[in-house]
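[READ THE FOLD]
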Amino acid sequence: MASNNAGGNFAGLKFDMPSGAASASLQFDIAKTSSWGGSLGNFECKYICNVYGFSDDGESTVIGTWTLENAKTNLTNTTSSFSISLDLSGTDEYASYGLIFNSMETSTLGAGAGMAADITNIRLLGEVVPEPATASLGLFGLGALLLRRRRN
C-alpha cells in the first residue's frame, strides 16, 4: 500500500467464515517499506482497515475497524503486529466477509512525496460455537451408544 498526493490507495481481501462463529480476531503485520519525494516533514498519513460483513443481497456492514494515525511517525521498517476484534454475534448472518486497507494523507504534501507499507501475515482466528440443537443431538447419540453398550 502506498500513499501520496493522490491518496486513497487501498488493498482488499474477501474471505468466508463458518456459520456459528460468535467472535473472531483479525491479526496482521505492517511495516514501512519506503518513503519518497519532497517535504515529508509535514506528511501525515492515516492507514485504516475496515472489516465488512456482506449479506446475500450484497449489503455491507462494518463489523470492525483499525486506524493508525500519522503512519509516517508510527510506522518504521521494523514489523509491527496488530489485531482487530470482530463481534459476529449479531442477528445478521453474513454470506461473506471482506476487509479493505485504505491509506489517506491528512496533510498537504510537496510534489511527489509519499510512503509505502507492506501488510503481511494476515490471520483470521475464530471459534465456532455449535447450535444448541446440534449439541443436543450429539449428546443424545452418545447416550444411545452408552445404553446399547451397557446392555451388551
User: Anything to note?
Assistant: The mean pLDDT is 76. Helices lie at 71-74, 132-151.
